[in-house]
Structure prediction request, 60 residues.
Amino acid sequence: MDLQIVLGILGTAGVVSAFLFALKGILDQVPDVIRAWRRVVAEARRGERQRNDADPPESE
Prediction:
């Protein structure tokens, strides 16, 4: 009985450790994803401005 408790504790600790390791890996990537997203948005805005500047004004 005692052996099962010890094995259960060790197994649980192993699962928690693996989960925390994976979570840390994901969280380490978040700043890079945010920077990349900001570059995409800035480029989209820059492209939109260039298209608006290239279009001649419409006169009626």
